[in-house]
Amino acid sequence: MFDSGLKYGLVTRALHWAIAALLIYQLGGVVAGAALGETPLTEAWGSLHKPVGLLLFILGVLRALWGLINLQRRPPLHRGLLGKLAVAGHLALYGLLLFVPGVALIRQYGSGRAFEAFGVTIMQGDHDRIEWMTKLGGDFHGEFGWVLLVAILMHIVMALVHQFVWKDGTLNRMA
Ligand code: HEM
Ligand code: HEM
Does residue 144 form part of some domain? Predict the structure, then answer.
């Protein structure tokens, strides 16, 4: 269940791949929307953007807490500069995973409109609009969502380099 010096544990792996699958769905929908415009497919895909985003935020918080609990037990990264870059890259992924849906949820609250996800009322929407909250989401949510997409693509490229160029078994630790 916990991480060990050799491998990420079951909880870390389940969270990693569940979040990866949901983010591919989430960003795939955004990319499809940008590429194809409004079609029945992209509208259906986009209709789950807010609830899936909320789910990603909750899983991201759990994952960050689980990462902190396992901080001393995690498999080691490279020594030297490459290891520092890997840590920085992973921290950036965590930061974006919390920031992107986080500012969207703040904007949603600030809009003063009700928000329901998976049949559950998350926000009542019984107050006036709160300008700084809507501005925060408007200024940063979409932009940093695209940054997250680029960061994930770089992360996937590095996973492939580990697997097929350096052949160091890094993928097995998370598989
Ligand atoms: C990790 C989760 C999320 C990711 C990766 C994500 C990603 C994105 C991206 C890249 C865009 C820009 C689309 C464009 O430029 O046309 C966008 C737009 C939008 N997202 Fe999200 N989103 C997430 C979570 C959420 C949540 C939780 C909400 C609301 C509760 C939300 C509400 C919106 C809305 C209303 C827009 C359209 C307005 C705008 O561009 O800011 N998103 N999202
Ligand atoms: C399908 C695509 C993906 C592949 C092939 C992949 C592969 C991997 C591998 C092999 C590791 C282990 C690295 C090591 O042991 O040093 C890892 C760790 C990690 N991955 Fe991914 N990953 C993918 C998607 C994602 C996504 C979408 C995120 C977004 C947040 C992410 C965030 C992380 C983080 C933060 C770590 C560091 C370990 C941790 O704290 O959980 N990955 N990934």
Answer: yes
